Amino acid sequence: MTIHHDNGHHAHDAGFADDLQRMLGRRRVLTMLGALTAGVAAAPASALDCVALPWETAGPYPGDGTNSKAGQIVNVLTQEGVIREDLRASFGAFSGTADGLPLDIELTLQDAASCTPLAGHAIYVWACDTTGNYSLYDIVDANYLRGVGISDESGLVRFTTIFPGCYDGRWPHIHFEVFTSAEAAVSGEASVLTAQIALPEAESADVYAADARYSNGTRNLGRITLASDNVFADNTEAQIEQQTLSLTGDPISGYRGTLTIPIDFTAERGANMAPPPGGDRGGPPPQDN
């Protein structure tokens, strides 16, 4: 269902397929799709790089067509402009720009079985703003801090976003879903991995203490640990290390983060979660929010 707004415009026009052609070009699209079947040879990665990330919940605010708000399906993946690198501004018929500390992230997609890169795969990422609010749900007229990237021949995808806030009951995190191709990324139900990226504690604490835009970050971070978080708590030490963003930079000018995402294509779909604390917003998405 198309999301409508008071200005009378649709939230998408030609949609994702047209977006893919326009942003990447037909030749590059065909090249990437061919790489899916041909495979890409690469030297084996380190042992850590091959720790498959576990499936996690998409949470209540995925905006990927798997849940609804006020009776309407919320699916940013069909909106024109969703394939982009800079996630800070809204796109299409939406408005507003997310204010926060700059965070540039580089994500490398791998096949966990062979430790080789996954070219031509689509990854959809989304996160909350500085105080824990999500576009399309908490902020209904914005769709910022959401976007799709297509992995290059080395499996690499780059995004520019902001350092996410810490809301009560959850460890600081970034959501993501991986799809076999851009064409497959029209619904969260088609993902080959749905998981979350953990932010490291030291840098999170520094950002929340130094930047007034994260007004509730220090308080909320002090109420949660990775061991008590209902998403990350049941993961192994190796999995936690694998899914924690590695950061360089500072809490004044911003950070650059890197992460390798190995995918086990034989893994059982779905998330095994610890019991949620009161008021947590990380659980399974409701049918109507």
TrEMBL record:
SUPFAM superfamilies: Aromatic compound dioxygenase
InterPro entries registered for this protein in UniProt: Intradiol_dOase_core, TAT_signal
Region described as Disordered: spans on this chain: 267-289
Domain of life according to the entry: Bacteria
Pro residues: bias regions: 274-289
Protein name as catalogued: Intradiol ring-cleavage dioxygenases domain-containing protein
